[in-house]
Amino acid sequence: MEETITIKELFNILKKRWLIIVLTPIMIGLTVGLITHYLLTPFYQASTQILVNQKNSEVNMMELSSNVDLINTYSVIIKSPAILDKVNKELNLLQPREQLTNKIAIDMHENSQVFSVTVEDEAAERAVDIANAISEIFQREIVNIMNVDNVNILAKAELVDSQKPISPNALWNITVAIVVGMMVGIGIACLLEYLDNTIKDGKDVEKYLGLPVLGSIENISVKKGGQGSKSQTVGGETLES
């Protein structure tokens, strides 16, 4: 026969195991907070904006059907050895091209020839340097690569004194950890209650053993005397010891 639990019983379980429910999310939240602060590597972000305004638009529009195609083409060029090898050499990064490529994202501005180059790196200053170097080298090299003769850098990346990392987000991580910890605490409380098969009162006897309760024994009161003596009341008679 399937056992069901009422809301009242669940409330009593939570009330009984409240310490576990409170301590579990606190411990998990604290652990995640320490891991986020001391073990996870922070990443910083820097962005530049570039405008490509082609004077020879008829030729290019015959080759590329839309601005979306143009941005996709610029994205491939920026992540190509023709640009990144020069960035690596100019900044003395000594990073594999694949690693540098993974740090770069190209974002298109809808219905325009403006796009953003965003770089993520463990060091805020290096992210700014890489973003600016990519923009400048792209501006210089695209003339020969695609015969594009009018490239402008609209906004350079700047290093801000109070710049914060974009990841990891400590507040978000701790909040999620506390919510998960609360769920884990409730789960542990319910599991402990389920595994507890001790008989506590007459209701448990009727529920688990299916036997009627004929009588019950009250708690024996103990009174301490002056010299270690005590009296116990059992069945109306007082016993001294």
Automatic annotation (TrEMBL):
Its main location: membrane. Keywords: Cell membrane, Membrane, Transmembrane, Transmembrane helix. It is found in: Cell membrane. Residues 3-91 form the Polysaccharide chain length determinant N-terminal domain. The chain crosses the membrane at residues 18-40, 170-195. InterPro entries: Bact_polysacc_biosynth/exp, LPS_length_determ_N. The keyword Membrane applies. It is a multi-pass membrane protein. It holds the Pfam family Wzz. It comes from the Bacteria. Belongs to the CpsC/CapA family. This is Capsular polysaccharide biosynthesis protein. The lineage of its organism: Bacteria, Bacillati, Bacillota, Bacilli, Bacillales.
